[in-house]
Amino acid sequence: MILMKSSDDRLKLALKRWRDSLIDLSGKNRLLSFKHSRSATLEITSPEAAQLLAGLAKGLRFADLDEAAEDDEQGEPKAIAPAATACSGEIFTQKGTRSSLDSALRKLLRDSKQVFSDTGLWVLRLGVGFLDWSEDGGAKVCSAPLLLVPVALEHKTNGFHLLEVGDEEVTPNPAIAVKMERLGVEWPSADQMEDLPSTLAVVRRAVAGQRGWAVSERVVLATFQSHKETMYRDLLDNEERILANPLVHAVGLGPDAESDLSGLDFAPVPERELDRVQPPEDVPLVLDADSSQRQCLAAAVQGRTFVMDGPPGTGKSQTIANMIAVLLHAGRTVLFVSEKAAALDVVRNRLAGAGLEPFLLPLHSHHTSRKHVAQELGRALNEQPRARITAPARGRARSLRLGLSKYAEAMNEVREPLGRTLFGVIGRLNGLNDVVSLVPDRRFQAKELTSGHCDEILAAAREVSRAWRPVEEGDAFLWRGLERVESLRPSLDRVAEKTDLLRRAIERHGELALPLGLDDLPAVPKLISLLDLTASRPTVPPHWLSEPDLTPILTRLSDFEARRDQLIAVEQSAEREIGRSWGSLPRELAAHVPVDELALTNRSVPGVEVAALTAQQATKTAQDFAAIAAMLRRHRTSLADIAAMYGVPDPRDFNEAVNLCELVGFSGAEPKPEADWLDAQLRDAARHAAQELENALTELNRARGQANDLFNENIRTSPDLLVLAQRFAEDYHVFSKLSAAYRRDKKTLAELTHASAWSKAIAERLPEAVAWRQADERFHAAAREHAGRLGGFWAGEKTDFNNIRTALSLAEQIDAAAGAIRNNELLAAQVARNGMPSSIAIETAAVIRQDLSRWRASLVPAPHPGGRPALAQATLVEAAEWYEVHIPVLRATADMTRAVDMVSQSAPLTAARARHAIALVQEARRERAVFEGRQVADQALLGLLYQAECTDQPVIDAAVKWVGDARKMVPTGMPVESAESLLKATPDPDLAECYRSWVDSVGNMVTFWGEEQRETLRATLTGSFGEAAELIARMKADGSGPEEWRSLKQAREALAEHHLDDLIGRAAAQDVPGSRFGRLVERAVLQAWVECHLVADPRLAVSMAVQRDALVEEFRELDKELVVSAYARVIKACNARRPRTMLGPAAVINREAEKKTRHRPVRKLLSDAAETVHLIKPCFMMSPLTVSQFLPPDFQFDVVIFDEASQVRPHDAVNCIYRGRSLIVAGDQKQMPPTNFFGSSDEEDDEYDEEAPDSFDSLLDLCKASGVIRSLPLRWHYRSRHEHLIAFSNHEFYERGLVTFPGAFESGPGVGVRFHKVDGVYSRGVGRDNRIEADAVAKLVIDHFTTHPEQSLGVVAMSEPQARAIEEAVELARTGRPDLGRFFVEDRLDGFFVKNLETVQGDERDVIILSVGYGPDQHGKLSRNFGPLNKAGGWRRLNVAITRARYRVDLVASFTADSIPDSDNISYQHFKRYLEYAERGPAILAHQVVTEEADCESEFEESVAAVLRGWGYDVVPQVGVAGYRIDLGIRHPEMPGRYAIGIECDGPMYHSSPVARDRDRLRDQVLRGLGWELHRIWGSHWYWNRPEAEQRLRTAIEAAVDKVGATVAAPDPENLAIPSEHVARSKAEPKVEMEVVKENTERAWSTPYRKATVRLSPGDLPDMNLPEAQTQIRSLFSRIVDVEAPIHRDQLFLRARDAWGVGRIGGRIQANLEDVLDKMKRRKEVMVIGDFVFRSYGQVIARSPGNGAERKIMHIAPAEREVAILAIVGEAPGISESELIAEVSRFFGWRRRGAEITSTLRRDLQNLSKKGRISGDLDRITVIIK
């Protein structure tokens, strides 16, 4: 039974795969095995490493070389001439020529800048210091750099210079650290490798024990791709945290996740609900956002996880910027991640332009140094932005928005009950102006008109028109009784036709039908059934039909089936076991088990189960057993010799052998013991001696240490010291100190000091000198007694007692290992001090011990093949014999099994299974012999059905069943002739169809009459062919008259129901022709309906065009102001959440910011100050790599946003995902996937590999496929300034799902897609480029910057070699145009670039040149290999490349689309179609997508178009390729390819967006940005005052024609400027001023403490202890509590006492006060909690000392203290406990904190923690926000 892994297990496996894919520990990793490439790695041969590093600050120049020397083609380092190295300040490499060196340097410069531009990662580094290492002692030596030093190349006039990169830090090689850890080498930490000398030293120590490893000061210059070891470590160390994150479950497992992911599902805000759910006046969008973008923003603010599908140019970066802004406003923290530096920069620039940069923390690219981050956080903490802008009139904007939406809704809403829109009906009325206008009867209810009523009225009117003749002729019609209104003639004709066809079909089967009586009409169904049976007729033996009884045949068939199935079963068993070749198994093979194999199981140590082994296993086991047996016998002999040498007994078994080897091992140990120490008694004596001497020496050193700072060594030998000490202690007193003896003794003692001068301290410290002297004497006495027992170890005071202890311990181990029976002399000669141990014996014993240990480890329990554990207890000889007896059995078993394997498809087989297979084959051979013996009889029974054992039983069963069915059809039996006829017959579908059609036609025709005539008519038509023909002929005589009469009657009745029947007579009176009566009725009805609604609907009160235009314009201005000023609301919200004090983490940040050097690592700083960092920098902008480098694992974000997620692999994203609570993934599955094409490795010379995978699963792919993460699309396309730029992708890849906007230019050289055919030649061998095409591209580049300097430019090549060729061609072309140098500076977002297909995603430029590169080779042969485009996902690369341009794409190719054939490869075919598109334009797309002259969308537009054409203008309806279309475009009369103006109505296209911002501002803004002049026609104004509306239209057109003509300064359309951004730009960009943050002294959560001031008149007061005083006491309590609550009850009583004027509170007063307070509590006038009295209403506010009113901590309620604590923690999240207690104490005015205050506040903290209000530990406390 297979157990399915749980989802957690599967996620662990996925996480392990992700983690392992982050690092490459193979030889392909340049960080582990550096090898020089041919073109772009340099070996720095001079200067040396230290001098090179020191010179980087000022820069070092690469030495000048000549072209005389031969260069090294392989790029391997050469020795440099000594003369060259002497040149100081210059760099020499292995390159021998100037050209090769310059080529390498140019490539390094180009590649490093390209990677930095794409990813923000600096990869050009010096590898300094190298470790030469090998794995497992292998012969292959790898070289790995130790330090990676970031450097930059600068190309100056005097050559290339190498410089340091200030913003990048030197890093140890992370890959070698991981590799060494895997190899078990204790590698130094990064902190130990801060510079080259320390790095070389610690690495040398770390690898000192590795044989063949070496450390050198070698230096190389190369690009080292980003290393992801930190990400690997992140995923490894935080696996538990990652697995607990539901987002990781959703991404990694999707619907297979067992955890509850239902919270990820949500319903997006519908577009129609956007303005209600997210009113633009309330949501601070800092940039414009269309409705699809706002749907994503709404989901983000709601905390949803989703995918944001962002096709090219749909404003993905703008949406992300808006998203970050609204999330910051909502108080969310955001981690914005992208591997593309440009994506991060674009969003950052947009937010910076909106004034929000102070809240962003970019941690990618060059923003990550410790100093930079510390200073940036310090600035953010001490400065805050302040917006200077006037708030817009949000209320007015809301009112205008609602009004405009209501108007659009009113004009286009489907009005019930009619079910039509005002706009549509007004348009229809414009088309009915050709008929007379008649007002309906007053009883006609226009407002209640339903769509059904309208249809009935119009249908009735049309019927009146058609029945005009019956009205004139009256009631003289003969046909009556028909109930159906449609024409009868088709039914009559159909019955006649079907009757004739049925007769003919029956006649075709006369031979079968006549004998069986099936030629009559009633029998036709049976004839059809019999013929249908022949369709399923199988092969049937003829005698089965002629036999009278089928029972004997069925019995014989059953017997055959049983025999056949038995044969098949046994042969299938053999085939399943062996395979189809089972028959070739040798017949001599036996299935029984040999006797010698059975004997193995009866041994004392049971043998191996040979039957369970395969042939290979048996052979391998036999070989292993032979080797082990030989080893055991060989070592048994060696061990005997060694035992004799050491004087110990010969070992017999494994344990004795290992013990002997261990004894021999002691011979090499140091220090060796004395020979005597091998004796236990002498060893104990030596140990005692060592202890005594060590104690004496310790005492001596202690005494010396106390005295030797004053006294010198002469103390130890002075003969008079003790006497002098005695005299000074006993004899010298006040007067005796004047004696000469005293002076002599002083001099003597002074000479015993270091200073040789007397001081008072000498006498005072003389006892210390005596103690030194005595300790010295005791030490020498001990030495005399014990030193001899230590032998050669004794060295006086320098004796190493640790060595002695080690030697004694070793002697004890030797004694134990040697045992009691031994020759001590021989033993000492090998293991004791001064002995001569045999090195050969030591080496031999080590080998034996290793071999025996391996053998012991190889012993395994049954049933595993190998030696058994019991052999370790047997003698070595017995063990060897056990192995030897197995060998012949194993070899014989291997031979047998191998013979079966040769024919088996299931090989390898075990021996048991092989014997089983032999038995099955033998049984199958026996069964076949039996079956083949019955072949003749079986063939006679089955005839053609017989196929031996392959005879198909279902075929036999089908034949038997068919024969039975045929007999049922003819119950009287079937003669032989009938049977033969039936066997030849086939089904006749024509007959069946004829019969069915005839029945249907008759049934249909009779329904025209009422029930009385139907059955009579049916009987006539089905009786005979003659009767049916006669009836049909009579009916055909007159069929139209009855229809007209009935129609007129029904139509009049229908009109009368609506009081409109009088219109018939009134129309006749007006001489209205009958053909126009229907239009007359329609106009009358619709006109009444329109005027009813226009007058009654208040939303349409403003109908004048001038007024409506003014409302729209005012709305646009206010809406723009909302966007422009939104940043101020975000700033205000973010500033409000800033820390209010400089405590806790804020203090940490300030300290780090003020440092000059030795800053904390970024990761450490963020960890220590996480809470504050989140408040001052709520948005981090990072790459996946820097997330793991700099963010602690618990540094969480509310939202993680990924951009360009189609290029992010899951293993690069999971480190970010688990740090978030919600996830937003932005990308496009139809754009670039993650790939390994072109330079994904460090090998610069790698090219596109045909066998390489096309792409890898991306984060976007996993999210889209998860089934639990919803996708929200962006739909509006803004980038393309001409629809042709996006039309191809929109049609081919996006299924026309993008909303695109037409430009005002139909054509022109400055816009769209241009095709340039050149006669290029593709170099298929060396180079793989197209130089002619590259030169053509270079010319286009120079021409572009010459003629269009205002437009940015990028070049995209379809291969990396072509990109290099273009770069070189452009460089060469630039030499002739130095004036264009400014266009070729580095600029990630707008600068000129040359990139390949793999690196261009995320970039956009005004003009893109796309170079195919591939083409005909020098022989004119054009290959169909177009690099990565040939792959299945190549179309995604094409989609990226062709959608990068804003204005124009120049496609440069060396062939045309006609030059390449069609293909089944979808990517290849897309490429061919794009070539055709570039050559011929959108005409190659589907006709329904691009039409030259589309139709008008509504009748209203048709009427307007008719007016415009009547004025002589060229009108184009529905201008646009896809998405949004302009209703009517008017071509400029004098400027071909240019529209003069666009005419928009307020119909469906206007109402297509229910969002006011989209409808009334953004669409207009985008279109005007594309060059359009626009005029809107308001439908209500057109209806009420059409002449005025037409005049306004004419005036607008004439003004637009003049304006467009005047704006064109030159005839070249390329000079037309089209805005490149759709974002609303205010005339005044947002202004932000930075102001210094002052520490908050005013706290909104607190108030000064006030004492209640209560004055009472003592003369009016009763005694305070009396019951009658309770009323006044209650009033007094209330006044005090109102001011001071919460107040301690003792303080409350004291306040009352003082107000009452009582001296002290006695027992009765106390009881009276308690009684009053208790009554107030019961009445709920106050609350009493513990000892504190609270108001019964309001919240508790913390109170600081006011007017000197300081309170003791015991008098402050815990609730009030908690309020203060929570507020202070909120002001300084992450504050430590000590800081918090100090700040709380300061707040309450306690200048001294005693134990009571500290312990009380700590209890408060514990209580808050238990309540779930705060979290953290002593160092970090934060508020838990619920």
TrEMBL record:
GO terms for molecular function: 5'-3' DNA helicase activity; ATP binding; hydrolase activity. Residues 683-713 form a coiled coil. Gene3D superfamilies: P-loop containing nucleotide triphosphate hydrolases, VSR Endonuclease. Pfam families: AAA_11, AAA_12, DUF3320, DUF4011, MTES_1575. It comes from the Bacteria. The keyword Hydrolase applies. Residues 1500-1597 form the Restriction endonuclease type II-like domain. Residues 290-353 form the DNA2/NAM7 helicase helicase domain. Belongs to the DNA2/NAM7 helicase family. This is AAA domain-containing protein.
